[in-house]
Write a structure and sequence with these properties.
Elements (H helix, E strand, L loop, with lengths): L4 E6 L6 H11 L3 E3 L2 E3 L13 E3 L2 H9 L3 E7 L2 E6 H9 L3 E5 L2 H10 L4 E6 L3 H11 L4 H15 L7 E4 L3 H17 L4
Parallel strand pairs: 1-7, 1-8, 2-7, 3-4, 8-9
Antiparallel strand pairs: 3-6, 5-6
Helix pairs in contact: 1-7, 5-6
This protein binds guanosine-5'-monophosphate.
Amino acid sequence: MRHGNLFVISGPSGAGKGTLVARLVEAVPDAWVSVSATTRAPREGERDGVQYYFLSEEEFLADAERDGFLEWARYAGNCYGTPRASVEEAMAAGRQVILEIDVQGAFQVRNKMPDARLVFIEPPSLEVLEQRLRGRGTESDDVVRERMAAAEVELSRKMEYDIRLVNDDLDEATRALVAYVNEQAERPRG
Ligand code: 5GP
């Protein structure tokens, strides 16, 4: 018997969270990934309602004012938030709900929902992280610097997460993440 759960996946930009979450969804049929809202400009190939809901700052803050977000935070100069209603629906349907959000958002979620499971994805090293961010080719030098500074802050909080997975070998990290989600979903409840 599986139960619904809320999983928060955080880790520095470039740690490979997106790839891991995409693989998790392929491997776990009852997983559901929340689509966040953001004020950041779309990167090439990103589509509204798929990777994010792209909002103006005015629209975003109006939604926040209406309590439309389960959590929200500013990250590297932009606002990011988890739409509350769709997460609540997926939770009620007993899904394995996945939020890919930053550390500030993760602790807001833990405060509101103490049963949430917090997973931290670590890059093998800061050097590898910087190479991956530059290799993406979509970020300017300033953005890379800003994201590397944010990464150090994020890494300083990794011990507060329920588990940490080092994304060195993608297959290995995927196996560990899928195993953790399935184990939590099948954990007996009192
Ligand atoms: P990116 O701009 O690279 O897509 O995301 C930047 C950071 O914002 C990442 O750490 C990502 O996990 C985080 N993020 C994405 N959506 C949300 C959200 O809804 N809430 C919060 N707090 N962070 C988010």
